[in-house]
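Lab meeting, action items carried over

1. Structure of the three-component assembly. Owner: GW. Status: complete.
Input record:
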Amino acid sequence: MKAPPFIYHRPETLDDALALLAEHGDEAKVLAGGQSLIPLMALRMGRPAHVVDLGAIDGLAEITEADGAVSLGPLVRHEQANRSDVIAQHAPLVAQTMPHVAHRAIRTQGTVLGSIAHGDPAAEMPAVVIATGATLTATSSSGERTIAAAEFFEGYLDTALRSDEILTDVTFPAWPSTAVSSVVEVARRHGDYALVGVVTTLDITDDIVTDAALAYFGAASTAIRVSAAEQSLIGSSPSREAFDAAATIVAAELAPPADIHGSTAYRKHLAGVLTTRGLTAAVDSIGVPA
Amino acid sequence: MTDTQSSRLAAETATGGSIVDVSFTVNGSATSVTVEARRTLSDVIREDCELTGTHLGCEHGVCGACTVLVDGQPSRSCLMLAAQAEGRDITTIEGLAGPDGELHPVQQAMMDAHGFQCAFCSPGFLMSTVALLDENPDPTSEEIREELSGNLCRCTGYQSIVDGVERAVKIMKGGSK
Amino acid sequence: MSANTSGLVGQSVKRVEDDRLLVGNGRYVADVNPPGVLHAVFLRSPLAHATITSIDATAARRAPGVVAIFTGSDMEAITHPFPPFAMQPDLYTPLYYCLSSTTVRMVGDPVALVLAESRHLAEDALELIEVDYEPLDTVASIAEGLSPTKPQLWEKANGNVLYDHVHTFAPGNESVDAVFAGADRVITERLSCPRQSNQPMETRGSVVEVDPDTGHMTIHNATQSSHMLRWIGAALTGKQSTREAAKGIIANKERRKAFLAGAKSFLKENAEGLKAQDNDGMKSQLKADKSFLKHANLIGVGLLGKDDYPDVVAQDIGGGFGAKGSIAREDVALIAAAGELGRSVKWIEDRVENLMDGGQAREEDLTLSIAVDDDGTFRGLKVDLVIDQGAYPGFPVGAPLASAIMKVMFPGSYNWDAFEMRSRIVATNKGKYVAYRGPWANETWARERMVDIVARALKMSPAEIRLKNLIGDDQMPTAMITGPKIDETMSTKKTLERALELLDIDQFERDRDTALAENHYLGLGIASYHEAAPGPPGYWECVNPGTETLLNEEAQATVETDGSVVVYTSQMPHGQSHETTYGQIVADELGVAIEDVKLVFGDTRRTPFSILGTGGSRGGPIGGGAMKYASRAVREQLVDAASKLLEADVADIEIVNGNVHVAGVPARGVTFAELIAQTAGDGFEATRSYRGKGDGGWSVATHACIVDVDLDTGKVTFPRYLVVEDCGPIINPAIVDGQVRGGVAQGIGAVLYERATYDDDANLQSATYMDYLIPTSMEIPEIEVHHMETLSPGGENDFRGVGEGGMIGAPAAITNAIEDALSPFGARITSQYLPPTKILELAGVISPD
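Predicted assembly:
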């Protein structure tokens, strides 16, 4: 199980990296943490002719905060995010998510943006991105463009990133002081990709839900929100009944694909169960009676 | 370079893939290798550094047998290109014992606890445990189980390994190395 | 003379192995790198069943670093096919070569071997070999294996049912059918166990080292059985005509020597039996020969061998669980390739290969009928077993042996009036079925599952119906209905009684009620069994007449002139801690410290012959016994020499900490080295062969567990898991506990996580560790192990094996507990594999897709 040969590039500036991508396009792959790319190559399921390693470029592992919005650079590792005070304070949902990502020995190398760019529908970060409405910045040698969360994930392991672009930034909008959140998932084994998981955010003012996001992973070909369920919550008081009603909508709306680890019926059921659990866990932190 | 190595390198060059020079530190020793870029850190540790204590159980990042410390952080050496280790500080199981052969408390504790059987997985468990206790010197049993859940053992049912970590905590708290 | 033991046997002595293994100094096969070694990879079929219409390696041969490529037809020219290792009459055993040349029968079937200067380069070349396949209809399940309309895997077989045999045991006056007709009721259920895989953390691997000057081969291999690999490996790669073979024996000194030594030894050891015998007598004496395999090996070296027989060296092994007891097709291909090239070659299987072709097991359909009276008295048992052998038989042991053992062990520890078993083996297009830790384990799973089903039907508790029917001490000695003798060591009933004491049933009932509020359902499950570890004398005759000698183990103990103690075993440790347990035994016998005992294993140049090596829970009782008696014989030699030197009676000689002296005067003692020097000896040496003691031989356990089933998610956890085991006197309790817990963990894996999954066209769906799920430390609970140490009437060397039992009992206890948990829904568990989807389907929470 050894990767096929490739041309290895280790540029020292982002511009050099972008120039390489401009030159090699589809034949090139960006290497950040490598936790998805390297096993795919070892299995010879991925065989880029060129690998562009971002590891030698300074300044890509920054976590910054501005007006409450938190931005992460492309070399921010999951474990770095897990320990970041800035994230703990300003992006509590991201902080909540990190311990769910694989195992520590993966998190120490794997990058947050790499997980987003890979777009695995069973991974946590794409769901966090769509739940929060994060903004993604794709950079190529011809410039930068921002992509809204809702536009980014296009299909199974397929995103809006072009082959000459690098995902250089994700910015999570300022976290409202009235928001609560949770990440819940069920996997076959601890640390596995989820059978189904849900990222929940609720904005609650005066005991009324004013905004809600329910973003599912492992439930479709991409991370997916169920707006009908979200809408059902908005305007209501957070309660077990309201949560169960949302769960019923979710279980009806989603039709997750079956695989050897779980049937469609199972995953539908689980999506419903996790909706209630996720909503309950989200409000637990503020003690709203469920 | 032996005849075998130079013949191999010639063939590797002919594949059209990159050959790279990589320098890093392994168990305190500065090391430089010239290898195919596609070689993983685990390939290079085992074959070029001839440190065979790091094992390959799955080569796709699940079993954890290849876990080493990279700048003190536990990492899957099968999921890193050797080239990515440029300038890094690598610790393998061979680097745990003291220069005089004095065992690391985690090694001692695992022996005391009958931690392993075939021990093929042990390098990964030992490195993960060292990293865990470095971070959290007094973990609960649940924390130990969670932290070690990235390492597979097929022999023991894990209980003896968890017991070994708990013993290591006691030894390390006792102040002895 | 009593042994002056240092008292190590019975203690949790620290492992000797850890001194090297836990500092990174282990030497596993992947760590062996002879100079100039070539790296091997196998091209494997992507299709489950197909005809190879062409294979073209031209481009691959030109790829960088490629030294040689062998296709199936290349190998057919230089190797023999695997021979039938017929364990059963009427069994069809296919002939197949190390590589497939015309037909592929499974995904992963090896069709070509590439040798290149690195593994990476070899994998590159692999992609350049062009193979055209003509797909064939596939046989993907037991049902399809039984179907007469599916294509045959083996042309010369009669369909895909390779074995079909009925065994009947009705010792009383009534036939099986009469017993069934006379019982109050008959309860029948069809149970099925999906395919599992052994999955040691170290994959298979072999390094064939060729001496560049002499061409002599040394095979480094992760094998549970180094002698068998040497024998079979050499035999299958020494392809030559009978005439050449005969010429070889005459011309080659080594081969001549081996042939004559084998013949001479056979004639000598069987002199009595051969006297006054005609030709038929010769045949029966061959069968009766206690060292048949040793003699066959020597004679075989002469007859079949290469002029220069290879040596096999196995060092540290990263687990096997039965899978490394097989001789791999890859092993044979590698030896043949090394011979052709005259160069060292190395193959380390990768995990994907291992999941395809490293050994799978346990896939069986079992229909059980129990005839029972209304008061719960068992009357009769009928079993209809079908084993899915996959595409190739495990060599030498696999489905046939599993079925033979199941036939003997199915009645378990219960009283029956009659038993009937039909066994069938079917060929399918799946990975090969090999022995996996307790290869017969599904007799326990199916029987104990069925006992619960019967109890439920009769409204009895699982404990009550077991206690009513288990054979108790008051009936002993007796025999199983299938033949093997039973004495007090078959203590199943006592282990159940002890388990019931340890369980707090009232607390369980309270917890069960509390859990309901969270939509969690608790259940309690038990399973009781005995296993032959190694079984009483005669046991093996019941399983497989005429193969008793397979079980034999030999040990050699020596004291070298420098006084060091070196002992040699025919066992091949791969995680069982032989160096420690044998060290304890030898240290106790010889009165030395365990640090002073060196164990040599796995090296055919130095270790005594055994065909099986490690397997069948024989390491403690048989291998340990051979070791004990060999070292005891050396002790006698030491004491004898010391009595002469010290002018004392042998009865007065003691050995303490390696000091041989007259009792009470240690100051005037001598060390082993001094003793040898002063008596002008050249060391001491004794070899002992052992088959087990005269009675006993049963290892026994009851597993009891409480499961917590979350009906929101279908996830199952274990608030409590306990094992009451009885393996007789324990050599090292920590090692025994580890064996038991490891086995239970594999049982938990089997029920909740692991399945070698194939789709309807026999494509493997679980080819990575993302899909074949080995449980982690978060899934395996704490497992309580409680020991009982029933001694057998016959006294010493009463050790019994404990390597397999954990896995034998766990699936039954767990599935019984889950059915108990789901009893409010009337769930009936008939599959051994219960992933979350299945749990929720059983509880009626969801419907099948």
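2. GW to write a short summary for the group page. Key points so far: Chain C has three domains: 18-27+553-690, 32-136+199-238+306-357, 360-538+695-842. Chain C touches chain A through 34 residues (CB under 8 Å).
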